[in-house]
Amino acid sequence: MLAEDHTHEFFDDESQHSLESHQSKKNTLLKSHGRPPWYGEDGLPICDAFVIGIAGGSASGKTHVAQQIVRSLGSVPTVVILSQDSFYKRHTAEEIALAHANRIDFDHPDAIDMPMFAACLADLKACRQTNIPVYSFAEHQRLNETKYLYGAAIIITEGIMALHHPDLRSLYDLKVFVQCDSDLMLARRIQRDVKERGRSVEGVIEQYLRYVKPAFDNFVSPTARHADIVVPGSNNSVAIDLISTHIRRQMTERARHFRKHMVSQSVECCLSTSDGNPVSKNLIVLPQTPQLKGIYTILRDGTSNRQDFIFFVDRLATFLIEKAMEHLPHRPKTVTTPTGVDCIGKELDVKNVCGVSIIRSGGPLTRGLQRVLSDVAIGSLLVQSDANTGEPLLLHVMLPKCLRERHLAVDTWVFLLDAQIGTAASAFMAIRTLLDHGVQQDHIIFVTFLVARAGGVTVLQRAFPKVKIVTGAVDEGLREAWLERYNEKGEGQSEGDGRKVWIVEPGMGQIGDRYYL
């Protein structure tokens, strides 16, 4: 679980360290308070990420301005700072030799892979994942590895040519130019390149006079006319406050609040279903055998000991995954038995299959998945309710490689795992996240112990009609309750200070807590 302030980074520590060592710590996915919904009740995206382009001369303070903006924003959704330096073109051996001799013009627009830069930024703006290249300044070469990015609500792009290309400018919601004295820029560049990139003072000055200054005069400085605001390279607190105020206003206008509405809509639909049957053919319920009812009786019993609870959760999880496996494509396969006879059977007909657990209540289902598919890759999503609004927040994404790359994701089948579907707020966000990565809707199988008929499952299936839901039981009730907040001493806060929650009834309680604690 994450810290109480719900902060995180999408890069793990090792990956972040590797990236920083190659790219001067410019590409950063900053700590945040989670990504709120970016889609409507129909499951379709209704707002793009907010994109800011920051241009200016070399060492004018663009990265520093970007970081100042983020600090000034305070508690905001996930922010990514994307550096133009990642998108230098791949070089030949001859070009690398010239680069080490300071004979390559890295400040010319042609040095940047603008189409790739624009494509990656367009994916991030449209709330899709992307994989950005990694460039080594020490080697003067783009490396074979890439870095995965997803989930930013605010994207800050910085680079000397950030406002140069019209394809980039068309993606920005706010364009900023950092103005700085040329002497100060040279002093900063010498200090940075000597300390961080292993260059000599003479080499830095030679490159500055040969390439950097002419490029600034010819290509960088003229782009200031495209800027919405010009920011000083130092002593710029007033400008930073103006920018952050504008961004906060934009985030407020883009906020989505429909969790309670999802429940009320589902109740209306549910009440109109008089036959008591599931409302969709894609809601698959295990046959209600005496054995299954006996398992649920043990799991619903609040006095059951933990050892029994874990045993029967694992058993039920296996049943559910086996049922879900029926909905994967299979093809005929002929084998020869030990008696020498050919026998026609079946085998999976899929390129990739993986599991994604919604932390942490989806965890108990992963053991069932691993029992059925022993070598299956499993990723995770952390979705929690906002303490103020009750809306879901996407706090953490860790997905297998077959989902991080779109050309693989399109052929991947996903078992999405969560303990129950109540309001379906977490399920909505999880499914939308998979679709953003290129997973086909009919390749998603949601596996869960419980579904609340009076909950958000009706709205969920209306939004994603091709997603199959496999469950063991459908409970009738979803009760609205009030969860009070407590201070560090465990004392209740002032009256009315808390948030609404929805409880499945009769339910099984907090399944993840009962399983792990």
From TrEMBL:
Residues 287-480 form the Phosphoribosyltransferase domain. GO terms for biological process: pyrimidine-containing compound salvage. It catalyses: cytidine + ATP = CMP + ADP + H(+); uridine + ATP = UMP + ADP + H(+). Its EC number is 2.7.1.48. SUPFAM superfamilies: P-loop containing nucleoside triphosphate hydrolases, PRTase-like. It holds the Pfam family PRK. Residues 51-233 form the Phosphoribulokinase/uridine kinase domain. GO terms for molecular function: ATP binding; uridine kinase activity. This is Uridine kinase. InterPro entries: P-loop_NTPase (IPR027417), PRK/URK (IPR006083), PRTase-like (IPR029057), PRTase_dom (IPR000836), Uridine_kinase-like (IPR000764). Residues 1-32 are annotated as: Disordered. It comes from Suillus placidus.
